[in-house]
Amino acid sequence: MTVPTDAGAAGAAGPSGAAGTADADRYPDVGASDGPLLVVEDLRTAFRTTRGTVRAVDGVSLSVDRGRTLGVVGESGSGKTVLSRSIMGLLPASDVVRGGSARFDGEDLVTATPDRLRRIWGAQISMIFQDPMTALNPVTRIGRQITESLRLHLDMDRSTARDAAVELLRSVGIPSPEQRLRSYPFQLSGGMRQRVMIAIALACAPRLMLADEPTTGLDVTVQAQILDLLADLQQERHMAVILVTHDLGVVAGRADEIAVMYAGKIVERAPTRSLFAETRMPYTRALMQSIPRLSDPPGTRLEAIPGRPPQLIDRPPGCAFAPRCPYAQDRCRTEEPPLRSTTSPDHVFACWYPLVDGRPTGLPGPAAAPTSIPTSAPVAPPVATPVAAPVAAPTTGETPR
Amino acid sequence: MTITAPDGDGPLLRVDDLVVEFTAGRSTVQAVSGVSLEIRAGETLGLVGESGCGKSTLGRAIVQVQPPTSGSVTLDGVDLTTLSDRELRRFRTRIQMIFQDPISSLNPRRRVRDIVAEPLVIWGRGTPDERKAKVREMLVAVGIDPDAAGDRHPQEFSGGQCQRISIARALMSEPALLICDEPVSALDVSVQAQILNLLADLRQTYGLTMLFIAHDLAVVKNVSDRVAVMYLGKLAEVATSEALYRSPAHPYTEALLRSIPQPGFGHRAPGPDGRAALAHRPALGLPVPHPVPVRHRSVRRRGAAARRGLAGPPGGLPLPAGGRDRSGARPGACARTRGVPGLTPRPIRGSDGVPDPPPGPPGCVRHPSPRTARRQRRG
After folding, report:
1. Residue A45 DSSP symbol
2. Is the pLDDT of residue B271 over 90?
């Protein structure tokens, strides 16, 4: 694999006071100190709208180590896309309230100047966007879109950048890359476009990659190929990845750690194995159970989560999941549970009555037996009220198309 | 309310040797090449395959939105391909479709109650009051509050709610057949579960017959009685959902099954390096061929395509009549698979000492003959 290396540019683009040589800067496993690459603490992003302040990310803390994968899972509107955009600093210039910190290799991205961010984007942190058709420039050839960042960040000349682009396209599994450089995005299939997006994101060998729903809208077979490709490239390049998705199945085999988001907060965070084996948060369990399983007989009723995620304006007191939770008690509706851990410090959750073996614990009163889990009500489900009228500013970053 | 009286045990829909071709420049692309299938009244047939395999085109050809090149589509004894435009328009009220993108399939400038009432308005069915009552009934049936939602526009609703409205609209004309073209693939998993449950309920209430097109086998298995797997414009396998999952006869079905991510399923402990092991690595070893067979006008190139195994035998897959496929003898277009009478059974993969199975006929794209394979390696 030929990775574009250019010592001078890499040194210049690297954060000041980071690893010594340009090589170590580029490949953090070479002589770089261990420890987390990205530390997010109490990150807050709110959008001021005409209807009130939308707290899309509300005090999120997490960290990602070099070469590891963090999965971020949640429904539409849970704030997962705004979280990844807040880490990147890709937010509207006005009507945004930001708080907390996101330190990438010691440097706070929340307070970084736009000029500084431009040097980091692409070179140090890159992002794969959800929709490859709208993320790629429709009137520019693929080749130009890949070489753009190579020439800017790594100061390559035209022919070197072109060779590097061919190599990148080959590494993401695009056949006959020389010809593909001259293609426009519309000439490629959805899977191929997403590969091109990955190639662009990888171009300057970033140390952190944010993948925001990289496979939504793709076929299952293509999805598996893209995720495998990401995993291979990550291992090769010792890259940290944040994989944002709504599908727990996608992150199940691929993330080292999983954070489940609900209403702008992390409600459960655990190493992957622990999350599936000892699910504590009823919401996580409900998400898992809403996925149709191949082993279930046909016609098995899915355990859908009734209702919708709450609006992020004027959130009610207490646990945000309480209105949809089968085990909700009075305390859940009045007091907000903090993130805490019981058995293992790695496994944190925000629930007053965490599940143990699928049953809530510590319920008050003798009648601790849970009410039956409400399935999505049949022919007359919880009568849907329309979502609030769309507002000018992005509310959660995931407004319906 | 009954939608249609199932006449005996015969199939409601019968598709015979359906071919759909598109011309692209100087070559012809065969999106559907000789598909035959049947759907009985009250049955749900799942249709799975990758994008570009022709499954949506097949759905559209059944409704005659995309006129088929040859073959026949018979619904309730009427061959749709022989109808005049006028007759077809009249008859088409009996088939309704639900599309993938719920938001773009609703007119953004109309109110929900008008959108849902439109099928009846167009055909002048019922008085305005009757129509209003029917709209109410349908909206309630799909879980939308008619009082709160009726006067609103589609963009005020989430994707899942728009899909509910689309379903209500499709059911207004009491169709005999409902074609669902990827109805849940644009939705979140939690909303997907709600919509799948809704379809199951409506099926119970109204005795719906459905063709359910999707690319996710787990979803299809959940809703379908039988599943047809489509690959390169042909049916690769038709089986009951249970049988398909238990013992996929076609290697392509197996590959599809393996690509589905399942939480907790086969999730392995992190490897020695602390990294989570990849639990769901699909072994799609062969290069993906062109999504649909292309027939070039040039005789030489057509010959080459045939030799590469892209063209395949004409006619596609014979489907036994009268539900023989339920009994275990399943049609599978791959001759190297078991389940096809008179053809070599496939040894179980991974078992020791099993010799390489004999090569299949050149028509199978996943099992090229040794000669074809050599040529592919060289080329």
Report:
1. E
2. no
Residue in B with minimal Cα distance to A231: B278
Nearest CA in chain B to A234: B275
User: In this complex, do B50 and A247 lie within 8 Å of one another by their Cβ atoms?
Assistant: no
Q: What is the CATH number of domain B11-261+294-300+327-333?
A: 3.40.50.300
Residue B140, min C-alpha distance to chain A (Å): 6
Contact criterion met (CB < 8 Å) for A385 and B145: yes
CB contact under 8 A, A253 and B242: no
- Best mutation target among B190, B195, B230, B284 (most A Cβ atoms within 10 Å) is B190
Which tokens hold the place of B60? 């559209």
Q: Which residue of B has its CA nearest to A191?
A: B51
Which of A386, A380, A392, A340 has the alpha carbon at shortest distance from A362?
A340
CB A52 within 8 A of CB A314: yes
Q: How far is A8 from chain B (nearest CA, A)?
A: 33
- Whether the complex's predicted ipTM is more than 0.85 is answered with no
In this predicted structure, the answer to whether residue B292 has a pLDDT above a threshold of 80 is no
Q: Do the Cβ atoms of A69 and B225 come within 8 Å?
A: no
| Mean pLDDT across A152-168 | 93
Taking the domain A68-92+211-292+308-360, which CATH number applies?
Answer: 3.40.50.300
The pair of structure tokens assigned to B19 is 């071919």
Report the share of chain A in percent with pLDDT over 70: 82
Report the C-alpha dihedral over residues A319, A39, B273, A293, rounded to 10 degrees: 30
Confidence category of residue B291, pLDDT binned at 50, 70, 90: low
d(CA B30, CA B22): 6
DSSP A182: T
Question: Binning pLDDT at 50, 70 and 90, where does residue B332 land?
Answer: low
Domain A1-30+125-205 CATH superfamily: P-loop containing nucleotide triphosphate hydrolases (3.40.50.300)
The structural domains of chain B, with segments of one domain joined by +, span 11-261+294-300+327-333, 342-350+357-379
- Tokens for B137, please give them: 């009934």
Instruction: In whole angstroms, give the CA distance from residue A205 to residue A194.
Output: 17
A-B Cβ pairs (cutoff 8 Å, strict)? 224
Which position has the token pair 């690893």? A19
Query: CB B189 to CB A378 under 8 A?
Result: no
Check CB contact under 8 Å for B141 and A379.
yes
Residue pair A194/A169 in contact by the 8 Å Cβ criterion: no
Domain chopping of chain A, boundaries: 1-30+125-205, 68-92+211-292+308-360
Please say if the pLDDT value at position A380 is more than 60. Answer: no
CB B287, CB B275: distance < 8 Å: no
- A173-181's contacts with Cβ under 8 Å and 24+ in sequence apart are A173/A225, A173/A229, A174/A199, A175/B287, A180/A142, A181/A141, A181/A142, A181/A143, A181/A146
pLDDT at A246: 87
A298 with B261: Cβ contact below 8 A: no
Residues of B in contact with A298 (CB under 8 A): 221-225, 240-242
Give the chain B residue nearest A221 (alpha carbons). B259
Provide the β-strand partners of residue A104: A38, A107
Q: Which residue of A has its CA nearest to B218?
A: A294
Domains A1-30+125-205 and A68-92+211-292+308-360 belong to one CATH topology: yes
